Amino acid sequence: MQDLPALSLAPTLPVGEIRGDTRIPVTISAPRTVRAARLVWDLPAGVSVSGAQPGQTGGVLFWRQDGQRLTVDVGFKTVPRSGARVALLSLKVTKPVTLAGSALGFEARDGQGKLLSEKLMPDEQKKRDE
To answer: Which of 35, 39, 127, 130 is nearest to 75 (CA)?
Structure first.
C-alpha cells in the first residue's frame, strides 16, 4: 500500500531577495478532508503584511500580524484540491530581504475540528522536545 503525501500548507517563496511590495501565494497539498487551516509565520525584520485575500477556493480568511509573527486562518466551504492557492498575502518591505519558510508552522482541521496535520513552529517544537 502506498502512503499518501503529507498534508501541508506553505507559502510559495520567491527565489532571492525581494526589494518592494510582493504578493505571496499560500498553497495547500494533499488536503484530504480539511475544512479549516492556520498558518503561523515569523517574518524577517522589515517585512509587514498590508493585506490578505482568500485564494481560488473562496471561503473565509482572517489574518493578523503581532510584531513579526503573522497568523492566517482560512476556512473552506468545500475541501480544496491539492495544489490550490488558499490565500494571497501582500507584503511590504522596508529593505531588501530574503524570505524563508523555516520559521513557519501550520495546523489543519476537518469539519468536526479534529486535527488532521500540524507542523510546529521551531520554538514550539523545541519546547515539546525538552
So the answer is: 35
- Contact predicate 7/31, CB 8 Å: yes
DSSP string, 59-127: -EEEEEEETTEEEEEEE-SSPPPTT-EEEEEEEEESS-B---STTEEEEEE-TT--EEEEE--HHHHHH
Whole-number Å distance between alpha carbons of 4 and 12: 22
Q: What predicted TM-score, i.e. pTM, was given to this entire model?
A: 0.90
3-state secondary structure 28-65: EECCCCCCEEEEEEECCCCEEEEEEEECCCCCEEEEEE
Query: Over the stretch 39-62, which tens digit does the pLDDT of each residue have?
Result: 999 999 999 999 999 987 767 899
Residue with the three cell numbers 499560500: 26
